[in-house]
Request: fold
Amino acid sequence: MAAPMLRWCCPGRRFAFARVGCGSCHRRGPPTGSTSNGKRGQSTVAQQPHITAQKPRKGEREWAAVVGLEIHAQIASNSKLFSGSQVHFAAPPNSLVSFFDASLPGTLPVLNRRCVEAAVMTGLALDCHINRKSLFDRKHYFYADLPAGYQITQQRLPIAVNGSLAYSVSVGRKPSQMVTRTVRVKQIQLEQDSGKSLHDDLRSQTLIDLNRAEGQLRVDANISVHRPGEPLGVRTEVKNLNSARFLARAIDYEIQRQINELENGGEILNETRSFDYKLGCTVPMRDKEGKQDYRFMPEPNLPPLLLYDSGSLPPGADPQQVIDIDRLRERLPELPRVTRERLVRQYGMLPEHSCALLNEVGLLEFFQSVIKETRAEPKKVTSWVLNTFLGFLKQQNLAVSESPVTPSALAELLDLLDRKAISSSAAKQVFEELWRNEGKTPAQIVAEKKLELLQDLEALEQLCRSTLEAHPHVVMDLKRGNPRAINKLIGLVRKATLGRADPTAIKEVLERQLSS
Amino acid sequence: MSVQASPTLFMASASAAVAALSDVITFKRVARLGEDALRRPTGSEMWARAVHLCLRAAARGRRGFTSKADPQGSGRVTGELIQHLERLSLVDFGSQEAVARLEKAIAFADRLRAVNTDGVEPMESVLEDRCLYLRSDNVVEGNCAEELLQNSHRVVEEYFVAPPGNISWSKLDEKQPFPHH
Reply:
């Protein structure tokens, strides 16, 4: 069971909010107790939900919630943290298990270099202090999916500490009302994952698969409430939340539950709870028996992990056996915050747009491909990608990778629009056609459906004149000062042109003709 | 795997003793795990040595085994502590005789306090001066499910079979006949 995991604990700030209908906020929480980490490059702190705080009623004191997150992220590596068996999901049970993973006596852990690099890079990305020396420990508890009886983790001295992550959250109805918040990262540590248990209640047995590599991102939340100025309250742990949405709901529920309990004179038990998705509430977990004592001890089979930087690299050392933090820092990709700022600078887009582009997997790459291939203005591209393209994706619940429209197709369409070969409403029609994925290019669709803008100015003038003559009462209406009459006229001309004339052009011609 | 052969179990239990002494822990009586399935050899000197070292450590703080002149208490191991240790480590003390033996062993190991460790850094592990070997991220093992499953008493379709939760087989067998495969 040596699937590599990274765990990090995020304490947040405290936030005071009034009693009813309040959102939750990520606050500081003492994340002690079980650690588990998964390793994986993609780890995110959950998004802040929409906050609606009501003013406290007169005489009511405020409550403050304190929330800490334990995030288990699996590292994207080929082999496991302490053994050379494969990391792969959905493999036949126990097929990716080595003798060490099965905890056979006489086997020893051997640390995977890639996992250490991943942990360091995650620490650097989250602005942590990287500990040049970190230690491995054993955390003991008995469970069928933990054949050794202990889990190797980093409790005393983890690989990275004291980081932070800044993020944007919308605080109002309008998407432009965004604020920046910061969450503290208490520590990042490497640890083993336990196996997978399938409970068969019918036959009173549990089936154990020691492959691991399941549940690539898991979050446990530690939640407590207290009155500001008073000591922290008793915390509960809500385990195994697998999506940001459920995380938010579980935390909201638990905060409210604790407040209600305390206000009714009850007390909060230091217990572990799980979230019932269907009922939308947290329930105590049966299995836990009081406070766990994990009997931490140093892992006797692993020396301390030493990391170096370019200044401290021992001369003549085998490069395979030393890890240079500075080299890893250079290998870091552009961090999202930097990307967002760059997009705003480079393309003049609003901050909320750059956030939106980064919030959908593959959307930024799509956007950049379109930008590269089209002559249209970046603002137009942004608008089409975020409104039309993303809208269609969401409607059919598709990922960017599943889109029937390629960046080239959209780029071509935007070129046509830019050249004023088609109107924007015609462009929307073409896009719908493209979405049907019948293999036609935008140009072909335009030709087939005769969507080209009327280029012949003479013909347009003719049509306008005849429309004006055919509808004298509308003209009268307009001359009497009804501003909406012009729209009626434009509509009539458009109909006459079979939708192939640009409304602004029509308006211009009509106004010119009317004033003469 | 016998308890005597496993220093790690001793040390693990010892740190439980530390926890028990340095915090005030109130815990409920938990159903004892099935005795037949889990009976182990009773307390040994190695066990006691480790427990004692940690008991001393408890007086100073949780970590390390350096000595400070902190007089230990009476050296009596309370019934509550025994229960706690048994539950955590699955070591069965069985009899009062075993507990007495444990206390004697603690007293014997107490003589380590005679060593002056002022200004000496606690050792983290016997390997602390060694290099930690870093393995390349290649797949070199696994794929031996059949072999591994042979070790298991019960198997269902390539899964190891365990009793539900932390209840031993013997306790379950008492309740209902288990379908044998």
About this structure: Chain A touches chain B through 68 residues (CB under 8 Å). The longest strand of chain A covers residues 178-192. The mean pLDDT of chain A is 83. The radius of gyration of chain A is 30 Å.
